[in-house]
Structure formats: structure tokens, C-alpha cells
Design goal:
Elements: E1 4-7, E2 9-12, E3 35-37, E4 45-49, E5 58-61, E6 72-77, E7 88-98, E8 105-112, E9 116-117, E10 120-123, E11 134-136, E12 140-141, E13 146-151, E14 161-169, E15 177-187, E16 193-198, E17 204-211, E18 213-216, E19 221-225, E20 231-236, E21 242-245, E22 251-253, E23 258-261, E24 265-273, E25 276-277, E26 281-289, E27 303-307, E28 318-323, E29 329-331, E30 341-343, E31 346-351, E32 356-360, E33 375-382, E34 391-398, E35 405-412, E36 422-427, E37 440-447, E38 454-462
Parallel strand pairs: 17-26
Antiparallel strand pairs: 1-2, 2-4, 3-15, 4-7, 5-6, 6-15, 7-14, 8-13, 8-15, 9-12, 10-11, 10-14, 11-20, 16-19, 18-23, 18-30, 19-20, 21-24, 22-23, 24-25, 24-26, 27-38, 28-29, 28-32, 30-31, 31-38, 32-37, 33-36, 33-38, 34-35, 34-37
């Protein structure tokens, strides 16, 4: 029987084992069952479809198998704009944890209807903390069965794991395809060696930040040499790493790779896995207390907010788009969530090397209808000396790509402030050339390259 539970994710029950506890008896040791799908599902396994994915993309296939017997997992990836979902994705997990510490890899066989990249495949997604996720994004399948190996970053951490296998496959060039996966299991392989680890993708970086800022480390990778001589890189959760700070009064790192910046000063963050030092480091330079922009007090009923913790923001495709050499909008360093730093719970955008960067609201979300709005508000703080002739130009684009019109407003050097917030309430009538504002889909920040490092907060339209 199949049971579907609606709770953000769609949980589809595959098989469930029985559990029993008896007073006075010790709990049994956790199972070390390595099998996930070997000619069928191992006991106690459940399946959850990721939000936005096609509900029935996954099926059990008894016709196409890696060894001609049993069954395999079949994943049908949809075409672009498929009304049933935009991709195929989900996770296989157990309600009772397993002890996987005696294995050093997750292995499986895969093939596809054509040569395609396999998107994301990994383990550790348990629909809870997802503490020990590990994933690979460079696998490629073809029309023949092939064995794939995902080395475990540090198997000693997996003494109580529920996340057995997860995947996310999207259309290629707008077209769907089918992937088969079989013989999914954890193994101990004697052919995995030369472990190397990275934080910040092996780079030594420096960040200037402030007291009270929280951020997280990225670019955490585990790299192993396989039997065929190739290296396999695994994107690894922070919980596999041990982090060290040279000055805990300036910067501390928790077990999940979150950095809390403290007193003014300098600290160097390094990492290791299983006693092996990771390449890369982060030097944290705390500049002391960060003064946040004033909290807006306008009535939310008169506001359309793009980025502000004081209001509910509209959906945004990206906060840091720029045009590449092909004229296409590309997402840069800031994630789609926008906030580059969180200070005492308040998110702030930090645009560095600013030249031409945009906030997009037209690719997959409705544009903003600001017809009834009268003003545009933004708070800006410049992080370097302002010279005569410097400027920041704001552009609003309406009906992007389809009868597009735009309007601009220039903030001159005479009012730009270094290390202080400048709050602007700009009449929309001052955006020269913006005759229509019913479909605003892009907001651009343009500078002269001298004003290249700014903080931005509280971006919204309002009706006065």
C-alpha cells in the first residue's frame, strides 16, 4: 500500500519495518545493512519527492536491469515547462538509523537513454538535519551500464544515519530523458585512496566583516583517488570537518561550519577531516560593530518590498545578476536569498567590485506592478572613500525583453556617504524614461568602478 503525506515535501511510503521496545531490555545495536536497492528495496526504506519535482518520476522497472534479473529504479526527467513538475528529484531514507561506519563508499550502476550529466546524486538527506550529506555533480551517464562510486568523506561519522540516497535530475537543453539506477549499496572498497580535503575550494581567502555577523563556510570538498587513477571530488557537509580558529574572541566556528564574528581583530579559520588538514583557509578581519540601516516603519499595506527584513518580500529570481559576454544574465556571488551577511538577525547585501549588477524578478516569478506606488526606497552605505565625480546609478526596467522601457536615477558623489547609511526616498517620476511601471522586472545598480564596495538594505516601492 502507498501512503502520501502532504507536509512541504510529499512523502511516499515504500516499505516500513516494525519496531518494538520492551521495558527493562537494552536497545539492539543499529543495523549495518548496506543495501539500498539491490533487486528491490531493503527493508524500512521510505521515499520523499522533493518540492517542485514530478510526483511519479520514479518507478520500479522490471524490464531494464543491470544484470538482467530483479528490478531497477527508473527516473523519467520531464521536458521544460512540464505542468507536473520542473525536474525529477527525491530522497530515499529510513525511519530507523543505520550504522554505516564500516563502509567507505556508496556505489551504484546507472545508464540513460542518451549521454547526459546526472545532475546531483548523493546520500545523507534524511528530511531532518541533513547533517552528513555528501553529493557529486560531475557524473555522466550513457546508454551502457556503468558503476559509479561516491567516497564517504569520513565514515566514522555515520554511526546513526537515515539518508540513504538522493537525486535531482533536470532537463538538458529543454528536453527530458530517462535514467535507470540499480545495485545501490554501501561498500568497503580497497581501491579508494589518497584522501584530500578542501575548504573554500582549497583557496586562502580573507573577509572583512563585523561583530555579530554570522556566515557559513562553503567549498567543502573531499577528493579521493579511484582504482582507474581518476580523482573523485565529493561536495561534503561541514559536519564531516573539524574547524579551528586561531583567535576565538574574533571568530568561532560551530560543528556545522557557521562562523560567528566577535570582537574587532583577526582570526584564521582552518579545517581538517580525520586528522588530515584541509587545503584552504579563511582569514576573518572583524572591523568591530556594524551599524545597521534604520528599520523601516512604513505601513506594510503601502509597500512592495524587494529586500527587507521589515516586510514580506516579493519572490526574486536573483539579487546579483550581471551580463556575461553573450549578453545573458548570469548569477554572481550573492545567492538568490540575497543576504551576504546577517547581523543580529538582519540580512544585508554586500556588492563588491561593483560595476553593473541587477536584481531580477521576471524569469520565474511575476514582475512588480508598481503603478500605484509613488516612491522607490533604498539604503546604501559606501565602504571606501568617495571621490568627486563618483556616482551610483539606479535603473528600473519595465516589461523586460518585451517592449522594454527603463528609467534611471543618479546618486552623485555630493550625497554619497562613506561608512554611513544613506536612505533615499526617490519619487518614481524622477526615474527618467520610465513611462510605465506595471511590470518592473529588473533593478540595476551601476557605478563608475571607483565606488565598488557597498552595502544595500531595505529595497522597496511605497505609496506615499
Amino acid at each position: 500500500m502507498t501512503k502520501v503525506i502532504f507536509s512541504g515535501l510529499l512523502l511516499i511510503l515504500i516499505t516500513t519495518g516494525c519496531e518494538r521496545s520492551v521495558d527493562g531490555l537494552e536497545e539492539a545495536d543499529l543495523s549495518n545493512n548496506p543495501n539500498v536497492f539491490v533487486d528491490g528495496f531493503s527493508g524500512g526504506l521510505e521515499y520523499a519527492v522533493f518540492q517542485g519535482a514530478v510526483l511519479n518520476a520514479f518507478q520500479v522497472d522490471t524490464e531494464v536491469t543491470s544484470d538482467g534479473t530483479g528490478s531497477s529504479m527508473r527516473f523519467a526527467v520531464p521536458d521544460v515547462n512540464d505542468p507536473t513538475g520542473s525536474y525529477a528529484g527525491g530522497t530515499f531514507f529510513t525511519t530507523t538509523p543505520r550504522d554505516l561506519s564500516e563502509y567507505n563508499a556508496l556505489t551504484f550502476y546507472a545508464k540513460a537513454t542518451e549521454s547526459v550529466p546526472l545532475g546531483v546524486i548523493g546520500f545523507g538527506n534524511d528530511l531532518d538535519q541533513n547533517k552528513f550529506t555528501a553529493e557529486v555533480t560531475d557524473f555522466r551517464a550513457n546508454t551502457n551500464w556503468k558503476k559509479y562510486i561516491i567516497p564517504i568523506p569520513d565514515a566514522s561519522k555515520l554511526t546513526s544515519e537515515k539518508g540513504m540516497f538522493f537525486y535531482s535530475f533536470g532537463p538538458i537543453d529543454g528536453k527530458g530523458y530517462t535514467v535507470w539506477i540499480d545495485e545501490v549499496k554501501f561498500e568497503f572498497l580497497g581501491t579508494i585512496g589518497q584522501p584530500r580535503f578542501e575548504m573554500l575550494n582549497g583557496e586562502d581567502q580573507t573577509t572583512n566583516t563585523f561583530t555579530g555577523v554570522t556566515t557559513s563556510l562553503s567549498g567543502l570538498n573531499s577528493i579521493y583517488n579511484l582504482a582507474d587513477g581518476t580523482d573523485q571530488s565529493v561536495s561534503s557537509a561541514a559536519a564531516y570537518f573539524e574547524f579551528t580558529s586561531s583567535n576565538t574572541s574574533t571568530a568561532e566556528v560551530d560543528a556545522l561550519g557557521n562562523i560567528l564574528v566577535g570582537a574587532q581583530g583577526s582570526a584564521v579559520i582552518t579545517a581538517s577531516v580525520g586528522g588530515i588538514d584541509a587545503d584552504g583557509s579563511l582569514t576573518v578581519e572583524s572591523r568591530g560593530t556594524f551599524i545597521s540601516a534604520p528599520t523601516p516603519t512604513r505601513d506594510a499595506a503601502n509597500v512592495i518590498s524587494v529586500f527587507s527584513d521589515a516586510y514580506d518580500n516579493v519572490d526574486v529570481d536573483y539579487y546579483n545578476g550581471f551580463f556575461n559576454g553573450d549578453g545573458q544574465t548570469t548569477q554572481g556571488g550573492t545567492g538568490t536569498g540575497g543576504a551576504d551577511l546577517i547581523v543580529d538577525g538582519n540580512g544585508v547585501i554586500n556588492y563588491t567590485q561593483l560595476n553593473f549588477v541587477g536584481i531580477g524578478m521576471f524569469d520565474s516569478v511575476p514582475s512588480i506592478d508598481a503603478t500605484e506606488m509613488t516612491h522607490f526606497h533604498v539604503d546604501i552605505k559606501v565602504n571606501e572613500a568617495v571621490q568627486s565625480g563618483d556616482f551610483i546609478r539606479l535603473l528600473l526596467l519595465n516589461s523586460v525583453g518585451d517592449g522594454e522601457t527603463s528609467g534611471s536615477f543618479t546618486i552623485s558623489s555630493s550625497i554619497l556617504l562613506q561608512d554611513s547609511w544613506l536612505g533615499l526616498d526617490i519619487p518614481l517620476s524622477s526615474f527618467t524614461g520610465l513611462s510605465d511601471r506595471s511590470e518592473i522586472g529588473l533593478i540595476f545598480f551601476v557605478s563608475d568602478n571607483t565606488v565598488s564596495n557597498i552595502f544595500v538594505d531595505n529595497i522597496y516601492f511605497f505609496k506615499n
